[in-house]
Amino acid sequence: MPKAGIVTVVGKPNVGKSTLLNRIVGEKLSITSPKPQSTRDRVVGIRTTNHSQMIILDTPGLLNPRYALQEAMRTASLRALEEADVIIYVADASEGTPPPLTEAAGLEKVPKAPVVTALNKSDSLKGSVRDSLPESDFVLVSALNGDGIGELMAAVEQKLPESPFLYPEDEISTQPVRFFVGELVRETTLEQLHDEVPYSVAVQVEEFREDRSPLYIRAVIYVERDSQKAIIIGAKGAQIRRIGESARAKIEGFVDKPVYLDLWVKVLANWRKNANSLSRFGYQLATGKRK
Ligand code: GDP
Ligand code: MG
User: pTM of the prediction?
Assistant: First the structure.
């Protein structure tokens, strides 16, 4: 019997989650589109081997205090944890063993899925720090150079339930990539604008054409007010150009191809208070209980 299930990745910003996702997804795996369903927008990749399939979910901002107030996003991330068959908890090895996930993410109860702790950036670890790590339950990895990734995958696979594959191996689409691209644009916008347009930013990828080089992506940054639009565009468009350049570099790192990013800003008044707009941007509301 093959093994298959949902693997949810969680960790603080900058610990290397994206790099790890890339590594896991990039190595064996084609990015595959699931059939439309509730988890769809959070699937960032599917890793299929001969005998196992991992459907990998991201938890945007769950351990990032900056996003803590964004309820719909936290709800989506908590759901990704609830749905998990296995959780990969990523932390920076140079910071020693991380606090328990329940504490770090402010969870009300311990997640029911087994947690595999990946201590990342082993390549930059000094010998003395390495020796002082306790002999406990974690896998030392380097998402950057691939060290320990095989071991990590084996640890996760071992905990996956026996199940037929959940998605066809050959169905390839850009949907998960689109989601990730949107997140990268949003992240870049927040990075560059700090607290000026706090939680009013949503990003929608409207066009994604892989049939040309550079790959063509048209994305719209939605804000709630004209004043926010003006801030994002900046004097003579300088700000949006900076956002575009930085986001494009990140996207190229993710898709590993040259990218043309066509970036727009639009006002959608009070979108955060509007259930239709929230669901359009892929947020699920706490009230819309699943199953
Ligand atoms: P995220 O915020 O958790 O998604 O982290 P990123 O994947 O964006 O990585 C944050 C930074 O850490 C980037 O500069 C990465 O290049 C770097 N990084 C990620 N993984 C490793 C690793 O295994 N070793 C080293 N030395 N750097 C890493
Ligand atoms: Mg990231």
Answer: 0.63
